[in-house]
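Tokens as discussed.
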């Protein structure tokens, strides 16, 4: 009887901590969405046409809403949406904007936002397994490298390096 009650207590403790971890993650996501509350649709015809051309040329299936925000300094791929920093629309040349859009479109095509959200929930639900954190970080890092590779292939490597803000000495890696 005591073994059963100990098992029940451990299961309840795990469940409680898992729920708290998942709620913490959900709260952090809501904070991110709240920070992006000022986002508005991009109306620049050239940037919208560039995104549509990228979608058509690459065979991308994802329907994409393109927005911009003053609250971010780097682009974000959300579910079905690419949010660009306002500065990117005025400071980047056409090739760099195309590379940035290609990178974010790659995330949407691969469904990276959904996979990373699932990995984060699993990491918190099974917090007692430290390799879940390692796996989630690996998935996140791989997603970035794969999006970079996809964007370099579809927009030109040097443009991608410039869009990422890398110094000239690093740009050879993307050619």
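Sequence:
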């Amino acid at each position: 009887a005591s073994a059963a009650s100990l098992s029940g207590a451990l299961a309840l403790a795990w469940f409680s901590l898992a729920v708290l971890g998942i709620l913490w993650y959900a709260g952090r996501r809501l904070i991110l969405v709240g920070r992006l509350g000022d986002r508005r649709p991009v109306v620049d015809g050239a940037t919208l046409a560039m995104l549509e051309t990228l979608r058509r040329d690459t065979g991308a299936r994802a329907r994409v809403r393109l927005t911009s925000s003053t609250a971010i300094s780097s682009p974000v791929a959300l579910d079905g949406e690419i949010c660009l920093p306002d500065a990117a629309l005025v400071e980047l040349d056409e090739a760099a904007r195309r590379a940035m859009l290609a990178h974010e479109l790659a995330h949407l095509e691969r469904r990276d936002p959904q996979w990373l959200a699932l990995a984060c929930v699993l990491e918190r639900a099974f917090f007692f397994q430290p390799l879940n954190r390692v796996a989630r970080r690996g998935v996140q890092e791989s997603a970035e490298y794969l999006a970079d590779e996809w964007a370099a292939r579809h927009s030109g490597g040097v443009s991608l390096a410039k869009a990422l803000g890398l110094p000239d000495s690093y740009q050879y890696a993307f050619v």
